Amino acid sequence: MNDSILIEILMLLAAAVIAVAGFRRFHLPPILAYLTVGVIVGPYGLALVSDTEDTRLLAEFGIVFLLFTVGLEFSLSQLMAVKKEVLTMGGAQVVLTTALIGSVAWLFGMSPVEAFVIGAVFAMSSTAIVVKQLAEQLELGSRHGRLSVGILLFQDVSVAPFLIIIPALTGVDDVSVSDQLAGAVIKGGIIVIAMVAVGRWLLRPLFHEIARSRSSELFTLTALLFALTAAWVTHYSGLSLALGAFLAGMMLGETEFRHQVEVDIRPFRDVLLGLFFVTIGMMLNIGLLPQIVLWVLLLALAIVLLKAVLISVLMRLLGVNSGVAVRTGIVLSQGGEFGFALLSLAMGSEILGAQLSQIMLAALIFSMILTPWLIKYNGTIAKYLCSESYLQNRAQLVQEVAQSARTLSGHTIICGYGRIGQNIARFLDQENRPYLALDLDPLRVKVAREAGEPVIYGDSAHIEILEAAGLMQARVLVISFDDIYAALKILPQVQKARPDMPVLVRTRDDNNLERLQRAGATEVIPETLEASLMLASHLLLLLEVPTADIIRHVEHVRHDRYQILREVFYGQDDMSVTGGPYVPGRRLHSVTLSAHSSAVGRRLDEIDLAALHVSVTAIRRHGIRGQNPAPDTLLMASDTLVLYGGADDLKRAEERLNRTQS
């Protein structure tokens, strides 16, 4: 690789880092950042990076690794478990969308080959944007969220046949299209069967031997070698590189090494996939935009509306109620990353003309720019369009919940019936205490109800659902799921309706403890702190500390709302944005006073660190540590003060303590 190529790659990476950081600040998808970088630095922008075979090869490897990880997640048993959402609805969506959009393109004068490619490109939706946005809006577990994810899963899998078909369409005339397609499908089928057979017989024994070496480097190298070899086999056979990678991932996905391979491959995939989207942006000729902007906007809006209507109608025909159907259609109405992959493949095969490719490329980008706002307001739009249906469905759901709670009084309402919720229910059963659980997983609710357990489908974030569950007659409410945003929706509503209602909230750690308490939680139970408490209790028991003293320690910690357990020093891993979760909460921090500090010779209360919302938990002097120093403690040079507070407050406190004497 010569210096100019290396410099170009460095420029791409630097621009991508800056763009992704900026887009994340505004909660925009990283895909849009990569596309923007490509547009700006590419040959049609500032021309800082040329669109060469080298950069395109790196980008193609991004698609190879993307399809490899998709193959890892592909499992026939998992597909059969959700076959209605994935196979029936997903299959119908891909086939009908491809056919309808392709037919419209054909009516507008496109050749059958061009029409088919256009339909395939726009049949795809953005898995990355949709899943991320639905997760942030707490809608992944909703009915439209589950339907959307199921359809997206089928779209991901359906890329494989398109990867076989599209290269086969290169240079064919209208008469020979069917023959070419049949030949490509037969050849692809033979290669798929051969590779799956070889993988089933050789792959598991090979990776067992590699795993015995206990070398992570050898394991990663073998996985890379296998993925790239499979990609080369399909490419050599006249098919795409990505198809071979998908098959390799699918074969490894059936082994016990699947998760380890996915972890090892992910860094390669993320970096190279980012470069792929950058190269897609580089293909966009912004100089041509003034001439085609009207067609771009019309095509993007037409695709969004057409897909939204088509998917909504399809969902209704398959028995989904109108509100959920419309929300699913809105969520999946955009173009997606696999659409870019298919378009890139078609452009490389010269199936589409230059101007048509530019219009499609810009329309895909514009539809994805619209996506965050469409998903954000999907509920509002659906309620406006289907207000009567929404009211009927909500009324029916409330009635079903009320029917289940009609005989209950003094009971416990459990919000969330996952593992924690079910464990709580077991203890209530043992004490013959009544309860009613609400959950949004229909399979879990179905199985639990068949077993005779008092569980009902319902969203506990809606006050009418809670009231139907007997909120006014209940004794306690427990939020058992680890979802801070949902808990913060529930608490104010419960506080307003039943200010006397005790509410227990489960959370993973103590970062949002005060926030939940201010919102109305009676008790917040952080998992990490309770685990620390139990581990410390068992340790003291092994050290033969009297049981009464252990109980006293535990009760003191809980009575003090875990304060002593929350005062911890955070390390580099805790503060790393990429290597660990960023901790925004309060923490411990030590400051040593220099001989020139203005704090030396003054009393602790004179410094008035409390005004900065910082407390002094200990002072270490001459190797001796004193806990909870008195306010009149005189500070001396070389004293180490252990401070407790928020990050910004601690910074101001350290500046005040180390201010030099005038």
CATH topology of the largest domain: Na+/H+ antiporter like fold
In the CATH scheme, the class of the largest domain would be: Mainly Alpha
End-to-end separation:
60 Å
Share of β-strand residues: 5-15%
| SS-derived structural category | alpha/beta
Number of distinct helices: 29
Oligomer: single chain
Task: Compute the number of strand runs.
Answer: 10
Shape-level CATH architecture of the largest domain: Up-down Bundle
What strand order characterises the main sheet?
3-2-1-4-5-6
- Fraction of residues in helix: 55-70%
Number of domains: 4
Q: Are there runs of 5+ residues with pLDDT below 50, and where?
A: 571-584
| Computed CA radius of gyration, to the nearest angstrom | 30 Å
Main beta sheet, described?
6 strands, parallel
Overall residue-averaged pLDDT value? 79
Shape: globular
Describe this structure in words.
This protein is an alpha/beta fold and 662 residues long. It folds into four domains: 1-49; 61-384, Na+/H+ antiporter like fold (Up-down Bundle), CATH 1.20.1530.20; 390-521, Rossmann fold (3-Layer(aba) Sandwich), CATH 3.40.50.720; 572-657, Regulator of K+ conductance, C-terminal domain (Alpha-Beta Plaits), CATH 3.30.70. 65% of the residues lie in helices and 7% in strands. It has helices at residues 3-25, 30-41, 53-73, 76-81, 83-107, 112-123, 127-136, 143-168, 177-212, 216-236, 241-253, 258-283, 289-317, 322-331, 337-348, 354-376, 378-385, 387-405, 419-430, 442-450, 463-468, 484-497, 513-519, 527-542, 547-559, 563-566, 572-575, 604-607, 647-657; strands spanning 412-415, 435-439, 455-457, 476-479, 503-507, 523-526, 587-592, 615-621, 624-627, 640-645. The strands form two sheets. It has a six-stranded parallel beta sheet with strand order 3-2-1-4-5-6, with helices on both faces. α23 (513-519) links the parallel β5 and β6 (523-526). α17 packs across α18 (387-405). The chain is globular and about 90 Å long. Mean pLDDT is 79; it is low at 571-584.
